[in-house]
Amino acid sequence: MAVEVSDVVDERAAAGSRLLLGAGPSPIPRRVMEALAEPTLGHLDPDFVAVMEEVANRLRWLFGTPNKATLALAATGSGGMEAVAANFVEPGDRLVCAVSGHFGDRLADALGRVGGDVIRVEADWGRAVAPERLIDALADGADAIACVHGETSTGVCQPLDGLADACREHDALLIVDCVTSLGGHPLSIDDAGVDVAYSATQKCIGAPPGLSPFTVSDRARARLARRRRPVASWYFDLAMLLDYWIDGSSGRLYHHTAPSNLFFALREALVLMAEERLARRWERHRRAHEALREALRALGLERLAADGEEVVSLLALPLDDRVDATAVQTALLRDAGIEISGGLGPFAGRMWRIGVMGDGARPEPQRLLVQALAREIRQDPCEALAALERRWSADD
Ligand SMILES: *Cc1c(COP(=O)(O)O)cnc(C)c1O
Questions:
Q1: pLDDT along the chain (396 residues), means of 10
Q2: Is 238 within 8 Å of 251 (Cβ atoms)?
Q3: N or C: where does the chain have the smaller number of CB atoms within 10 Å of the terminal CB?
Q4: Prior bond of 363 cis (ω within 30°)
Q5: Closest Cα to residue 377, out of 321, 311, 299, 315?
Q6: What Rg do the C-alpha atoms of the chain give, in angstroms?
Q7: How far, in Å, CA of 315 to CA of 326, rounded?
Q8: How far, CA to CA in Å, does 35 sit from each of 12, 53, 75, 267?
Q9: Distance between CA atoms of 335 and 222, rounded to whole angstroms?
Q10: What pLDDT score does 357 carry?
Q11: 221 CB contacts (<8 Å, ≥6 apart)?
Q12: For residues 200 and 25, what is the distance between their CA atoms, to the nearest angstrom?
């Protein structure tokens, strides 16, 4: 594979700009930033409606589903989580939730706040929850299994094997947070049998933060139609949102003022993804993950996730007391304009989290990171840089 120099990097040469290699936001391609600056349109302007339709179609392609109820919420990833809780949980519903990190914990919290009776199935931070344990918990009677596909606090990928079949058998829904994985780590919603999925634009999609791609299966829509009480959230009421997103007998109904510029940017990011092709994009993220993993290993840093349990889009590196994690993170940003993330929960102050997302998953940003990081921790970067080159130029 040829070594490509992304335009992210020359963009960064402009004073004060940042190289975003944390857990999100990721670097935004120039074409996407330019799209953001297109003239704002009204939320019912036919030209804007055409953009919505195009975005919905491209999101179906990205999620891997023909679900009619596919849209982008005007909200960040956490808004997608709120929308799941608002629409698919009623007080007293039993929900099996996998918790092995910060975002699984947040999901369980969100489901509980709307009255869900949440059955937390936990694993240590850094491990995935065995799917059999979720299936066993479901067998006692539950309305859904919810989990985070890419746990961004640990860099672990939650296997979904067998979950969809078990959910169908028990008339339960399968709900998946794919905020960190979508567009970087292989995932196809319908192949995995997922009923409700949400993501965010600023991770592997490579657009600015502010929209949450969201998709709902027909099974899940049928569940929604059987709700005993109205959805308590006005803003996230899916039926009302779909009256705006889907052209019904009374046309499209105003619901909220869509942030049209964010949609222009998302559309462009999706066009770029289609130009690259999804399989090749996944392959590039995988290569970037392995390249950076080997380079960081040469600097004495090891990934937390066990082999085969990693999410491609993130490297979480636990640290010992010999490094002041926060001081290095701060110095990287100050000296090199490079952002990486620190640890959460039990890893606060004891971890770096480095994104392998979108345009960050390319050789040039990784070279800059390895060089700058080696300088901050006073190590020779040569071996690490050689490892990067080797991986990026290998033709497997
Ligand atoms: C980033 C993230 C979120 C939250 O998204 P925001 O856009 O920050 O609200 C939720 N889930 C996962 C897995 C994430 O990585």
A1: 44 69 98 98 97 98 98 98 98 98 98 98 98 96 98 98 98 98 98 98 98 98 96 97 93 95 98 98 98 98 98 97 95 97 98 98 98 96 97 86
A2: no
A3: C
A4: no
A5: 299
A6: 21
A7: 17
A8: 19, 17, 19, 8
A9: 54
A10: 98
A11: 69
A12: 10
Give residue 208's Cα distance to chain centre.
Answer: 13
Q: Which residues pair with 145 in a beta bridge?
A: 96, 174
How far is ligand 1, taken at its centre, from the CA of residue 386, in Å?
33
Residue 197's Cβ-side half-sphere holds a number of Cα atoms within 13 Å equal to 29
Ligand 1 lined by 109 (C-beta under 6 Å): no
Ligand 1 midpoint to CA 179 (Å): 6
Atom 12 of ligand 1, residue of closest alpha carbon: 179
Residue length, the chain? 396
- Show the beta-strand stretches assigned E in 257-392: 314-318, 338-339, 341-342, 351-355
180 lines ligand 1 (CB under 6 A): yes
d(CA 33, CA 244): 26
User: Rounded to the nearest whole angstrom, what is the distance from the C-alpha of residue 17 to the centroid of ligand 1?
Assistant: 23
Distances (CA, A) of 171 to 138, 142, 300, 336: 10, 9, 48, 52
Position 2 scores a pLDDT of 40
